[in-house]
## 1
Amino acid sequence: MRSLKRDIAAFACALAFVAEIPIAAAQDADANATGARSKVFVTGSNIPTIDGETAVPVQIITREDIQRANIQTAAELAQTISANTSYGNFTENQGFAFATSPGLAAASLRGLTAQRTLVLVNGRRIANYALAGTVTDLNVIPVAAIERVEVLKDGASAIYGSDAIGGVINFIMQDEFRGLNATAQYSSPQHTGGWSDHFNVTAGYGSLAD
């Protein structure tokens, strides 16, 4: 009697498994029929993984965050990163104070100097500042075209080299923009020597996909 019950239970499980196969096949067919696609964005030279798999999470600054803080330059944006310390970096005014680096603005993650902080644009290296060796000038990055910023605050020298010991700041630019966007900022402090003005204009039409 017990053996008969086991046989009936096994037969019922087999029927349930066979009935499940056409349902799963039908679901796959529906997904293929609708043409569902998922986009994957690769922004670095390493294999991308989800945030939970990495030992050190990546800080992401979105375009909405940039607009909410009224940030006008990439150098101002770098100043909002908690790991960017005053030691070893350059602001625009500091750059003009040194004859060897006029107008330079550079970040210094974890206080390891600008020479040890790697700056990328869309996951790629850009030309260094001509008068300061391996330092990247943040002033060459138009903030109006930034989509988001990914900041790796831990060292990444094993992936990128010795210039990434302090960390990596990866600027992701907009891949498509339609319309006109303009911003302006003027600062005039009480004492002379610290005034600045910034203008950003972005314009685009059409579609890159078309």
## 2
Amino acid sequence: MGRVDRAGYLAVSAAAVLWAAGGAYASRLIDQGASLVELTEARAWVTALVLGVAALVRPASERIREHPPLWLVVLFGLSIAGANFTYYAALARLPVAVAITTQYTAPGLVVAWASLAERRRPSVRVFGALGAAVLGVALLAEVPALLSSGGLRLDAIGFGAAALSAFAYASYMISGERMGRSMGARQAVLRGFIVASVLWVVVQVVRGRPDTLLDPRFTFGVLFLAVATTIAPFLLFVWGLRRIRASDAGIVSTLEPLAAAVIAFLWLGQGLSPWQIAGGALVIVGIALVQAERPLPEEVLAERGAVG
């Protein structure tokens, strides 16, 4: 029996809160006329540029145990960009509640993958944590209110895009876990965002003139989003993936919609419904349950600590 790596859980939790803050800040920029897609593109480009320059000026201190295969690097980068792209496509055709809830089935996909890869059935506690977290996200998104209002519409293309976003998010966590452990958080995130940046260039060429990025009103906002809500949380998340299982990180990441609801309440003045309060409580229960899962063996923790 070993010890639970609290630092890994704290890093993933902090990343989720920063992503939620980024979403709230981005919504303010969108209200001022910014494009959500272009903000996301810019975050990827600035992240790749900043981490690339940092790697040249100050080589990463993490010890690279092995260079991951090219296909894994490409998969990691495409998963980062793909999770956002398909989520936006889903939002264009589905209610926000349905899109969010579908995307956050990703932790379940990670748990399923881990059980197949490790050939070990997840414990009852993991199933309980997963169920509480996903149900909590659904309540935070106010799916029951949507169902009772009769306003639910399920567009096939939109639902397909939402399902793809869940798979992309799960793929990001699984590939990021391996990338982070083999070469460290900074090197892994740099390579992933280089690939993601190339994909976003292709998207923007199709879209045409990037009006948001050429508008000086949004220059500070773009840089803030890139540094505070992209570079920092991705480094934290991948670093956390080196210390805890991807399945556990997926469950902990459901803290993001809870943090988003709290930030909206405190900063944007939006109210919290009883459904959302209940959902927040369930997310907290899920996270507490997964942290109470049997800790990793000491030799595994020692090995993970040795890679940075």
## 3
Amino acid sequence: MGEAHSKLGDLILALDAYQSATALAPDDANYWRLLATFCAQNGVNIKDVGVPAAQKVVVLSEDDPTALDLLGWLLLLDARYDDAESTLRRALDLDSQNASVHLHMALLYLQKEDRDSAYDHLVLARDLGSAEAEALLSQYFP
């Protein structure tokens, strides 16, 4: 239901549906992941809903680099750069070939105005198959 409401542009009903799903299945990481991803993709309730949902995913999905990537992304969106960086580094320690983690690291470094590190992570993300990284390389490093 959350995805359907989101596609129809009703973010309030979508958020409510995602939150209802987590209430019905509080130990299912997938519903928490969907809620956190929805918040990140739509830029809504990052601090109050998205970050706690991503934290719950990390707790329920021990040593899962994709869960850490999601949390790092939300922390980045919440401008908690040091926390985001340490979380994304933990994700890379578990899976150094994860294009999404490299992309989020690059976005973090762009925010911190560390262009050299951003470039390195964008190249890695692109080489691992991220089309978004390739577009960002063209935009920021023509």
